[in-house]
Write a sequence for this structure.
C-alpha cells in the first residue's frame, strides 16, 4: 500500500507541472483570462496560437508518459501502479496545488496515460479523436468519447475491472471539468469550435 501511495504522490507532482502557466508568465499573457479560462492545450491554441498549443500539449502528454513508464520501470511487480501513476498525473494537471487547484482539464495528459498503458488501444482512440473532432468541430466531443471508451476497452482487453475503476477516476473528473464546455455546446450554443480556433479568431492580441 505504501508503494501505491508514493506512486500516486509522484504522479500527482509530475502532473502539477503546467506549460501553459509557464508560457503565461513568459509571454505576459493571461491564458486564464479568456477562452475556456483553463490552463490547457486547447485554450493555449485559442489564445496563444498553434505553436504554444503544440508545446503545451506535448508537455502535458509527455508528463503522463513519464509517470506511467517510470512507474513500470521502478515497480514492475505492482500490476496497478502504472495506472495509478497515470491517473494521479491527470489529477495533478487538473488540480495543481500551487494554482489553488485550478489547472487544465486533463485531456492531453489522459491521452498520454492511455498511450503509455496500451499504445495499440490509444492509437485507435487518437484516430477516433481526430475523426470526431473534425466531424463535430468540438474537441470536447472527442474528450467525452475517449473518457468513456478507454476504460471500457482496457477492461475488455485486460479483464480487470479494478483497472477500469482506477481509470474511471480520471475519466469522471475529466468529464466533470468539461461540463461547462458541454453546457456551451448544447444549451448556450457559444462554444468556440475547432475551426474557429484554427483561424485564430479568439487569439490574444500582441
Amino acid at each position: 500500500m505504501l508503494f501505491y501511495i508514493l506512486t500516486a504522490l509522484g504522479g500527482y507532482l509530475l502532473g502539477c507541472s503546467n506549460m501553459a502557466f509557464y508560457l503565461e508568465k513568459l509571454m505576459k499573457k493571461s491564458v486564464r483570462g479568456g477562452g475556456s479560462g483553463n490552463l490547457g492545450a486547447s485554450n493555449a491554441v485559442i489564445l496563444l496560437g498553434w505553436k504554444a498549443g503544440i508545446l503545451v500539449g506535448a508537455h502535458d502528454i509527455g508528463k503522463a508518459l513519464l509517470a506511467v513508464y517510470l512507474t513500470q520501470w521502478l515497480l514492475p511487480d505492482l500490476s496497478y501502479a502504472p495506472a495509478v501513476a497515470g491517473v494521479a498525473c491527470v489529477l495533478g494537471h487538473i488540480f495543481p496545488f500551487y494554482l489553488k487547484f485550478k489547472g487544465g482539464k486533463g485531456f492531453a495528459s489522459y491521452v498520454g496515460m492511455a498511450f503509455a498503458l496500451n499504445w495499440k488501444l490509444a492509437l485507435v482512440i487518437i484516430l477516433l479523436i481526430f475523426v470526431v473532432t473534425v466531424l463535430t468541430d468540438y474537441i470536447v466531443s472527442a474528450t467525452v468519447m475517449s473518457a468513456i471508451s478507454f476504460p471500457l476497452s482496457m477492461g475488455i482487453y485486460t479483464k480487470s475491472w479494478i483497472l477500469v475503476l482506477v481509470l474511471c477516476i480520471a475519466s469522471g473528473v475529466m468529464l466533470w471539468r468539461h461540463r461547462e464546455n458541454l453546457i456551451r455546446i448544447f444549451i448556450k450554443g457559444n462554444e468556440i469550435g475547432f475551426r474557429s480556433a484554427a483561424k485564430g479568431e479568439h487569439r490574444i492580441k500582441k
Summary: The two ends are 51 Å apart (CA to CA).
